[in-house]
């Protein structure tokens, strides 16, 4: 807004050299935006809040509902009734996408569209740097992980006419099980196998399942990376090999796995060695934004595009905006620092829990394949079982410690 | 926060009678909140922004991520990285719902849950007052209309095992057509019939379709209320009668129909005379919030609950918060005023377009059954067709008039 | 920020014609800013909130504390500790002015300086249009009216060595009396004279005072425009004539007089006919900003500049920012509408109070020279006096009617 | 707002135990506020932004302009025209103080008054803990240091009728010199004396001045603590002794001295040994708020009150609100951490400058009595003088290093 001619005019009011210095300061910020538009990558250093706000504001002014003199006669005009609502969305109202494709540009919303495109670019790069450099395409979808898996499954339906089974190495997480049902498929559960302390994918049982059901009846194999100990991430590489061999799509629930280089590495390797079509992750669990979005990514650009086109209609821009802000705020360095912190804290927790376990005659489970979660025996509570376990949970809860199971 | 004991303490600093008057002013706002919690209905008069903000802030403080001394060790802790993001969501991060049910209460998010429950209550009442008083249940879902229709269709699948057809009186709207495909069903298109200027539902053809396909193979009939002239809202009552007779679910796409008492009346009447299971509407098109949410409502409480339970996992709270703010901001009077304004402007537009049409030797189509949209002949452009029509669109566009087709 | 080259780059992400339309929309706002910088006058139409915020944000980025890479080693670096404080001041921290002059440009704060300059220009124009077109200079000072009058008096001291009296037609307003004492002068009170219902300036008594004290001992005559009935605005023209004749400075307390064309007209006429050096008005009472600032204006540019130079050190920018926002938000039309409303409401109040007075056997005082305030007899309360008058006040107070005396 | 009865009602919507836990979380914040009101001291730990905002919001609701149903008929009703302005001031518009006293409670503004009282209490405690525990009274005044010194001087005038000299050990700071002139007094400059590298107060010359001018003609001695090397803080203890001996008021310009325990210690000791009436400090320089306020403090409660009563009229609340937020945000620990950081960085700067000076054949001045500022010889620039010195300044400036002289 304080463009060249406006800066020039300012020299009538304040001395020229002050204006020049200010102009230089403004141009530093303009350059940040230029580099973002040019490279569409995470900035090395995070941006300050002001620069982020300025950019969002300018993008918002590029949407038709903020055009001076706009006269919207239709039903899709991004009218916003409440000022409070308008402000919290930076006056962006059009959402993202068009009827035909959640990733398409909206003619009425150049700014929102630009924001969405940029966010998807940043997200793709983050996934690549987090450990899956071969990722071909990615986009933010304003639905949580479960519903996003539904969308992937519904897309696969078109490619796998007649198939109705989803092979699924068991994971005790409701919404994951439910997403197969919601998509209208029949989950075929493959029980995990105990290897010492760990529950790991039973590859033989999985292959047996495939042979019994026949490849053409199988929509996909749905594996999981991030999970609670003593279960470990699925053996993606071996599953991927089977999927390639039998020509079956392979979908990965990577819910909170981006934060773990091991999970990401598994995904990357599996995609190299065998077949891995798409992987889905939560935006709130990996990028610390409010619940509501997820990222669908994959190694086959066409499939990812097809998933985007399966979404009918426009969609909320809020999760994209949250990701946009958060990624610019963190920058590459900020994000990497968070990853390191998590790793460090995980090791610290492991050490301390080992000590506590020993002190109480218990034992930390050896679940070295699970880089995210830890388990501890509670053998001294044996016999009392249910009741006392609930009691522990409740004691933790009232001490404001949440997240333990 | 300035509770009784804190107000009492204030008397040590400022005179007692000033404190008393202030206490009274505070209690007026507390009472508004009390009445909202008690009645869970739209306030007659809209609230001021401050009262809305205060309530949201207090609700937010009831979520565990804002508990002083909270120590979250799990993956669902509503950590928010960016302050800018935190602020725009009033520091609410847990979203709504649980793995099992989008309408369930979250133990970690008492405040967000309360907000969501209240919003759904307000929304139900608004629909009832807008013309469908028999509506039994309603909830805000953080997906746009198309994807919400998908969710409804996926829920119906469980009730209609084996069925694969959706009977659909044609409407030229991409995302509506797409939603049936995305849900994995086969749309059976029933062409509309021209009655003078109007394109209306061909009831006979529809019944014929049912008989040909057989009721048990039909997932549902999907009708539409709000649409562009010369098409008119579907003849819901007659369709509902057939659905009842053949025992077929009836789903209504009421995208932008809440604003029209006629559309709502059609829905209400159809539910009385025949069968109408659920109707879906856009939150942005009817309540002027940013794109991203819709409202699923219906006359069968069990079905609506089942739809909520079909959604796998937690979901974005943003569309609910937007609706919550907007409805409290408008109040009953504000909302009714908007409805009246729309009616008034529609009539004004009709009058003026009639004049303009006459002036140019054209004619406003007589589409009296369509209470929302108007059509005009462009016969003088005949012959040139495509090109000049596009030109008109482009001329309107550069004059900042959007929404015309 | 979305400058030409950044818009150009955007075309790689979204279609060119969308970018062009958005660029045009952006340039409309840039033009508003251009015109402001060029003409430094109130825009005819008020600006929308977004444009105001964008401008403030850009100005803020022109201050050195917001320069990327700034390294402030001194004590005047506008460090802001709390983010909440930073945000509410748009990250402007340098205040306005320099040690030597409250109206001087700060090298470290080009943006704040520009804002301050523009505000003073807008304010000058508003005063001119409100009825005093000959006003030569004006500036916002971040002190309320009383303290600003002190500043004027302290400035006059330098011009009137040895003088110690201020001649002051009585007005029962504490801070006005106090300001003379605070400035270290001796108020010489000239009692008003009753003309029928009105208390008006006693010009003869005033001239007598001048002659008794001798002109050279008099710092100035301090008159008042806005006041409570039955007192009327001072007879500025006649006082001004005397001031000219005796060569005595004339200072006007125009506290809430800008809103009244009559008060402004008095000031203008007095400056033409006689001598009127400076007039001071409250920013909150005339322009509906929070308490804290006032406007010092006058017909002698040198004196006004001297007053600005008398203020030692930098000063709060908050009142200027509030004025800047408010004036841009209102625009010329908005401000004139407020003036008309006030006039209309005053007449309405007059009519209704007349009726009520008659109904209760009382009488509205005929104070036609007071365009702002009304008085009513309370003769039926006679005898009980003090107590019952207090009771009336208290009854109004508990009914939330404030401002009555 | 979510008071007991509203929480009780919430149990109809969400499970009782969730409400209870949330209620407990709310009460933690209510307790913080309770303790603040009870003790009126800086909290040990800083508050989070939300708690601060909630408190400000509630206080704001206690002001009459935010009363539901308020009908303000007067000129002091805190009407706020622009929503943007209203929000940035938390809808507080009444300012602080009354006509008679800047520290008095306003009947129309219970909340603002409470905020102001609390701020002054917090400020008093901070000064005591920073090194002047005997301080009897303190208040925030919405004028920068220079104008606040004027206010102090104007107050002293009433106590020192006829006196016209201010004795002032020289300090090269424009606004300090100007404040004596603005107050209408005659500065009597006492030149400093060179002790090795340091410029220190010449006590003998000062006493000589007193004797020459005679005590009764002297308004006060005005000393300075914080200053640029090679000048050092004035020898307050010795000056205070003289002031006591000759019965002359002693005013201290402690502009940016609160951050230095040495400066505060000087003040405290001087007040014990001799006479020190009041000391004035900048709020921006010591507490990192935007320019605009200062703190007047002293050891004689009556004098400080008198200064407050000298301010005519109400005043801006903005500097108080900024201080209120900042002090609650920092807490005792946060403030002490800042003080330690400053000390640490000062020593670091000293070390590094010593090295650089040596490297270039220069020398860091030995100004051990100045705990805030450092000087360096620039002897190699000798001969070129003016020009090259300016060049250094300019080179630092373009490298974004400001604050060097």
TrEMBL record, chains A, B, C, D:
Residues that span the membrane, as ranges: none
Query: What InterPro entries does its record include?
Result: PyrdxlP-dep_Trfase, PyrdxlP-dep_Trfase_major, Sec-tRNA_Se_transferase, SepSecS/SepCysS
Please name the SUPFAM superfamilies in this protein's record: PLP-dependent transferases (SSF53383)
Specify the pathway: Aminoacyl-tRNA biosynthesis; selenocysteinyl-tRNA(Sec) biosynthesis; selenocysteinyl-tRNA(Sec) from L-seryl-tRNA(Sec) (archaeal/eukaryal route): step 2/2
In short, the EC number is 2.9.1.2
**UniProt keyword terms in alphabetical order:** Cytoplasm, Protein biosynthesis, Pyridoxal phosphate, RNA-binding, Selenium, Transferase, tRNA-binding
This protein's record includes keyword Cytoplasm:
yes
Where located? Answer: Cytoplasm
Q: Which reaction does it catalyse?
A: O-phospho-L-seryl-tRNA(Sec) + selenophosphate + H2O = L-selenocysteinyl-tRNA(Sec) + 2 phosphate
Tell me where it mainly resides: cytoplasm
Q: Would you say which domain of life the source belongs to?
A: Eukaryota
On subunit structure and binding partners, the annotation says:
Homotetramer formed by a catalytic dimer and a non-catalytic dimer serving as a binding platform that orients tRNASec for catalysis. Each tetramer binds the CCA ends of two tRNAs which point to the active sites of the catalytic dimer.
| Family from the record | Belongs to the SepSecS family.
Q: What is this protein called?
A: O-phosphoseryl-tRNA(Sec) selenium transferase
Provide the gene name from the record.
LOC106473749
């Amino acid at each position: 807004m304080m463009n060249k001619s406006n800066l020039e005019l300012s020299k009538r009011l304040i001395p020229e050299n002050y204006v020049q210095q200010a102009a230089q300061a403004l141009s530093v910020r303009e350059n940040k935006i230029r580099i973002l538009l040019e490279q569409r990558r995470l900035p090395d250093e995070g941006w300050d809040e002001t620069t982020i706000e300025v950019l969002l504001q300018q993008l918002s002014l590029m949407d038709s509902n903020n055009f001076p003199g706009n006269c919207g006669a239709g039903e899709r005009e991004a009218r916003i009734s409440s000022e409070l609502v308008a402000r919290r969305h930076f006056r962006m109202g059009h959402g993202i996408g068009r009827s035909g494709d959640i990733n398409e540009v909206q003619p009425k919303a150049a700014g929102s569209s630009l924001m969405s495109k940029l966010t998807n670019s940043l997200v793709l790069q983050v996934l690549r740097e987090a450990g899956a450099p071969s990722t071909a395409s990615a986009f933010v979808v304003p639905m949580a992980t479960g519903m996003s898996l539904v969308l992937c499954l519904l897309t696969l339906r078109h490619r796998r006419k007649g198939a109705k089974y989803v092979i699924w190495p068991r994971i005790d997480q409701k919404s994951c099980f439910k997403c197969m049902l919601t998509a209208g498929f029949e989950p075929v559960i493959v029980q995990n196998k105990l290897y010492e302390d760990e529950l790991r994918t039973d590859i033989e049982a999985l292959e047996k399942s495939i042979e019994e059901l026949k490849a053409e009846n199988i929509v996909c194999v749905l594996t999981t990376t991030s999970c609670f100990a003593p279960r470990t991430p699925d053996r993606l590489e071996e599953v991927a090999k089977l999927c390639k061999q039998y020509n079956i799509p392979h979908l990965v629930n990577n819910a909170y796995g981006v934060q773990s280089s091991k999970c990401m590495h598994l995904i990357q390797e599996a995609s190299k060695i065998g077949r891995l079509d798409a992987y889905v992750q939560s935006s709130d669990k990996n990028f610390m934004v409010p619940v509501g979005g997820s990222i669908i990514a994959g190694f086959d650009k066409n499939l990812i595009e097809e998933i985007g086109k399966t979404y009918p209609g426009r969609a909320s821009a809020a999760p994209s905006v949250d990701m946009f802000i958060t990624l610019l705020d963190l920058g590459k360095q900020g994000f990497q620092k968070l990853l390191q912190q998590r790793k460090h804290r995980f090791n610290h927790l492991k050490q301390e829990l080992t000590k506590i376990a020993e002190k109480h005659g218990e034992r930390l489970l050896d679940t070295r394949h699970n880089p995210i979660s830890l388990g501890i025996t509670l053998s001294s509570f044996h016999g009392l079982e249910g009741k006392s376990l609930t009691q522990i949970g409740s004691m933790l809860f009232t001490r404001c410690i949440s997240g333990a199971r």
